[in-house]
Amino acid sequence: MRGIGDVLAVGGYRLGWGAVRRLPERTAYTAFDRIADLTVARGGKGVQRLRSNYAKVRPELSEPELDALVRAGMRSYMRYYCEAFRLPDRTQAELAASVRVVGDAPVRAEIEAGRPVVCFLGHLGNWDLAGAWGTRAIAPVVTVAERLKPEEVYAEFLAFRESLGMTILPLTGGGDVFAQLRGHLARPVLMPLLADRDLTARGVEVDLCGHRTSMAAGPAALSLANGAALFPVSIHYEPVERPSWRHRIVITFHDRVTVPQGGATRAKAVAMTQQCADALGTAIREHTQDWHMLQRVFLEDLEDAPRTDRPKGVYGAEPRAGHGDEVRR
Fold first, then answer.
1. How many folded domains does the chain comprise?
2. Cβ(238)–Cβ(252) under 8 Å?
3. Is 0.90 surpassed by the pTM of this model?
4. Is residue 78 domain-resident?
């Protein structure tokens, strides 16, 4: 039997997709700003973790400055949800007006040459909006989604993302996802993978903003296995001049990751992932409020974390036996 929490979660998401889509745009975004402010005022675990992560990447901030940054960060996080609920109703013109892109010429050149592109994303901005734009403006988008609980919520998110034109593979429970991703890389697709937080206990250790963390090896492993170009990608919000309360996302394709000439596969994967971490680290420092990281991410925090908060050891976009298995070790 399902618990009352599952029932409320499913009902809440369905209410969001229904009611929020019918609200006037300004009313909807203002309401989510208020929700964000109330959430910060309550100061729950998610807010405390957001504050801790922000303090690590922006140590120069005073306490009042950090307070303001956390408030802006939670507003950015809630903006993501408001946009997600309203995204299926966006016209093609509205979608195009919601995005500004930087550095996409090398990516388009790869696609036009018939080659796929793997993108290393962080939890920055609105990656669903970016995926919807990318699949229309550049190439078909193929990505992975973590299974949510309850299952009905995962099904709602899956249907939502597929309605935007993206191909979504489940992180777990759907077979060898790494092999499936490799199969999709046989054609010119855009493959964005959220990888700034390892979910496996098998990621690679890198430096992020001066702190050790573990990031997913999947993007680098796929690039090495298929020869696909790998690009770090960051996303942040910027206000639109008129009306002043509206925002759009800026998608930045950073420089293509360089593949080391020599060394073992694992060493190459670590070096490539570090290049991605460096690019994301710069973006996180510049647009900290748009880094939606409400979980433990730095190794120093994970050492004292309850066992339930630690990576579970199942990340489908990692190499299996026969697919560069040494990366996992």
1. 1
2. no
3. no
4. no
